Amino acid sequence: MTAYVAIVDYGSGNLRSAAKAFERVVAERGLGLEIRVTARAEEVAAAERIVLPGVGAFADCKAGLDALPGMGAALTESVLHQGRPFLGICVGMQLMATTGREHGVHQGLGWIEGEVVPLDVAAAGLKVPHMGWNDLVADRPDHPLLAGLPNGAHAYFVHSYHFHCTDPVHRLAHVGYGGAVTALIGRDNLAGTQFHPEKSQATGLRLIENFLTWRP
Q1: How far is CA 122 from CA 57, 137, 188, in A?
Q2: Furthest-apart CA pair in the chain: how many Å?
Q3: What distance in Å separates the CA atoms of residue 77 and residue 145, rounded to the nearest whole number?
Q4: With 0-12 CB in 10 A as exposed, 13-18 as middle and 19+ as buried, what is 132?
Q5: For the chain, which residues make up each domain, given as ranges?
């Protein structure tokens, strides 16, 4: 049976563009993996790797995830207990936090300690949402997910909130937008991107390749 990567479908936007980017990397690199978009907990539990995308408000995304029967337990078992590689994208990354502060205070998965807070860039004359291309600055350039990505690699962002890590060691990369804004987080087998790798052209494809070949 071919090993597969589960992209979790919990009603948070169109996942086809993400799936296509992962499929492209698998095909071009000959990785022999299946990319499977699924809302079934048993499929997530059996996946070699798990991807959690997300578009929209923190609370809505968390509610959508919680509404999938057995998904919380499957993620906990596979990611935290079995150590399967996990990648959160945009709000999927933000859900890894302890707390989200978008339209109230909401509990996250609590996998990486920190909180998701509004971008505070008005004093710098910048717009919210932060939308468009920005240059990555590596905080931990030796991390496997950053392999082959130089400082200044372009990545595409669309967000109004950002992840503030309690422990700075969990911030792998940032961008400058009225101050340092978290772009990539990680610990152990967990990682998350605030930017959209599926929209970030060469940078995104390399990040996806790094994730698909990562052996934490």
Answers
A1: 21, 22, 35
A2: 55
A3: 23
A4: exposed
A5: 4-212
Backbone angles phi, psi at 89, to 5 degrees: -120, 125
Q: State the DSSP H helix or E strand holding residue 23, giving kind and residue range, or none if neither.
A: helix 16-29
Residues classed as catalytic: 90, 196, 198
- pLDDT single digits (tens) 73-83: 999 999 999 99
Cis peptide before 129 (omega within 30 of 0): yes
What pairs with residue 2 in β-bridges?
none
- DSSP code of residue 182: E
Per DSSP, the three-state class of 177 is coil
The pTM of this model reads: 0.97
CATH number of the domain located at residue range(s) 4-212 in this protein: 3.40.50.880
- Six-digit token pair at 214? 């990562």
Amino acid at 185: I
